[in-house]
Structure formats: structure tokens, C-alpha cells
Amino acid sequence: MNAALGGAIAPARPEGRRAGGRRYGGFTLLELLIVLALLAIPLAVAGPAFVARRPSEDTPGLEALRAARTEAIRTGTITIWEHDGQRLVFLPDGSSSGGTVVVGRHRLVVDPLNGATRAAE
Predict the structure, then answer these.
(1) pTM to 2 decimals?
(2) Any idea where the domains of the chain sit in the sequence?
(3) Is residue 88 packed enough to be buried (19+ CB in 10 Å), middle (13-18) or exposed (0-12)?
(4) pLDDT by residue (tens digit) across 19-54?
(5) In a 10 Å sphere around its CB, with 0-12 CB exposed, 13-18 middle and 19+ buried, how is residue 81 labelled?
(6) Closest residue by Cα to residue 66 from 53, 78, 56, 81
(7) Do β-strands 86-90 and 99-103 pair in parallel, antiparallel, or remain unpaired?
């Protein structure tokens, strides 16, 4: 209404405020919990699928390669790992000659820079 006609003019509120003086520019705790719950459901379902795709850590030869690298670092000497004519050299700084070796029906990959060993997928 118009003030000249006898109506009251409502006072202007600062931007971002409600009538009670509270701010309204955020999310409530309940809204955040609902979103987290909705995100957790697909992660809980998909999580085991990702774990199942990882190669088994008990792959034959993998522990032997890791032990050879550890031995080279611990003793400060070059350690040579051999299996069925395949040969890898681990250096005292943890690096290695690198490459891929086959133990049984498993392919194992050794990083030449840091000597990290893993089962190939």
C-alpha cells in the first residue's frame, strides 16, 4: 500500500536475512546428512567390486621380490633375484633393474625407479 493512503511501509530487511534476524544462506545439518547418506549407498555397493578387481597380494613370487628389495636396502648391498632363468637386480637405494617376470601363471611387474613390485592385471 501507499503511505499517503494511510498504509504502513514495511522496513527494508538487509539482504540475506529472514524476519527473525537469522541467516538463510546455507544448508541445515539434516540436509547434509541426507546427501551423505545418498552418496554412501552407491559407494557401499561399488566398493567390493573395486577390491575384487585387485590382484591377490599372495601371488607366488611377489613376496620373494619384495624380500629381495628389502634385503638390498637393509644390508646396503646389491641383491639378485633369479627364477627360471629370469633375473632382477635390486640396488641398496631401493631401485632395481626393473621389468616384468613370470612366476607360474602370474606376471609380476617391478618398477625400475623405486623397485616397487605388483602383480600385473
Answers:
(1) 0.52
(2) 62-119
(3) buried
(4) 666 666 788 999 999 999 999 998 888 877 776 665
(5) buried
(6) 81
(7) unpaired
- Cα–Cα dist 113/98, whole Å: 8
pLDDT of residue 83: 87
- Residue 99 CA to chain centroid, in angstroms? 25
Helix boundaries (H) for 56-120: 62-75
Task: Compute the distance between CA of residue 107 and CA of residue 89 in angstroms, rounded to an integer.
Answer: 17
Where does the chain have alpha helices with state H? Answer: 29-53, 62-75
**What whole-number distance in Å separates Cα of residue 51 and Cα of residue 17?**
48
Give me the DSSP letters along 71-97. HHHHHTS-EEEEETTEEEEE-TTS-B-
